[in-house]
Amino acid sequence: MSEPPRERSPGEPVQPGEWGLLQWALRRDLRLAMRRRSDVLTVLGFFVLACSMFPLAIGPQREWLMRIGPGVIWVSALLAVLLALPRLFELDHGDGTLDAMLASGHPLPMIVAGKLLAAWLVTGLPLIVLAPVLALAFSMPAESIALLVASLLLGTPVLLGLGAVAAALTLGLKAGPTLVTLLCLPLYVPVLVFGAGSVETQSAGLSPAAHLALLGAGMLTVSLLAPLVSAYALRISVE
Amino acid sequence: MSTSGPGVAHGGAFEPLTAARLSMVRGGRRLFADVSFELAAGDMLLLLGPNGSGKSSLLRGMLGLSPLARGELRIGDRPRPIAGHALCRHTLYQGHAHGAKGELTAMENVALAAVLDGAPGGPGALEAALRRVGLERHRDIEVRRLSQGQKQRLQLARFALNLGARTRLLWLMDEPSAALDAQGAELLRELLAAHAARGGAAMVATHLPVQADGARVRELRLDAYRVPASAVAA
Predict the structure, then answer these.
(1) pLDDT per residue over A100-128, tens digit each?
(2) Which residue segment(s) compose the domain that B108 sits in?
(3) What whole-number distance in Å separates Cα of residue A50 and Cα of residue B80?
(4) Do B95 and A99 touch (CB under 8 A)?
(5) Is-contact A198 A208, C-beta < 8 A?
(6) Contacts of A14 in chain B (CB under 8 A)
(7) Which of A10, A32, A97 sits opposite B99 (nearest CB)?
(8) Cα–Cα distance for residue pair A74/A212, rounded to 1 Å
(9) Distance CA A233, CA A166 (A)
(10) Would the pTM count as exceeding 0.90?
(11) Which has the closest alpha carbon to B114: B102, B98, B130?
């Protein structure tokens, strides 16, 4: 964001620095997540149940389960992230705290970055922790499980970052959550292809390095750009 | 009169704000046109007008939260782009939503706001601010359990806290007294008076009479700036 250099009058107390702001938003949202545990548990519950439906529907053929396991876990993780997205900014918008953040004059991208980091810690990270347990239900071998975890580590920030932009753009619209889903799913396709594909490639005896490298590049790009673009979109949405 | 603030140091004085010919168009409808005013240290401007006359929008427009169609804003003698957020860092804004997280306690909310507002955030200062707005017994109660009036008092705690800071000397308040009882209205009056005494300025959008001893109170009636749409006789 190109802002004019700050002029500071001598009597002015020290304002929170940009990293201080990120921490402020991170702590704030983590504390809020602790108070609203049901929101977090809903997302995780959905993830676990969605994954467990497949072995029940398909039956106990080990070969089949092993083959669909990575894809099912990836799709379920993706849908679980989608489920968490509408609340990312909606609650702050509703109670006026988002306005307070916008009106504070602090660099909004740092605040959004803190919020996204918090959102990843309470949704993305628990999904990744649960994934190996679910992978066992699909009788996936250990090396596939390790790769699945690695691909989710790189992929979930991308899902969340892209979703944040969509959530910010549709903030305040009645059809917001539905629109977020429609906007996000096409954008999620490459992430899904490379994420689930990495495990597939490895099972076929090839190196998954290229898949992971692409996911990593995506993660870095989205992590840098998502806070900037979401912040910009938020300003447009509250107008 | 001002017992809570240390007064304004030389560097932190309020610079006069000049707004000239501010106009706003929302959804194809012109809310107000050519609104001009000046604010100097110790001034309080009451924004009056019926619902929908653009009182809230004017406040939001000045902060860049809603776009002003045209006009000019100056701080001191420096022009500021109306599309920018230049005023934000000089302003303490309270919107019409209560602006607090319902899941957090009153104390937690004030502490969070203090960081954002750049106000002194020590536990003593936060306690004092809550005491000042009469919420000291509710400090550990979740805000969603508070009444509307108490939530509004919690907003006032931000302003009480700001009296101890030397920054954000322009207060923009959107209906600060709508849910307040008589005591609360008295509290608002005291805060505004203390703010004026330390050389701050305020713009208050309101339906109810708001007073502040020692402040130069002026009124800005927004319905006077209503421009009838050319095709429709208003």
Answers:
(1) 999 998 999 999 999 999 999 999 999 99
(2) 97-166
(3) 54
(4) yes
(5) yes
(6) 118
(7) A97
(8) 14
(9) 9
(10) no
(11) B130
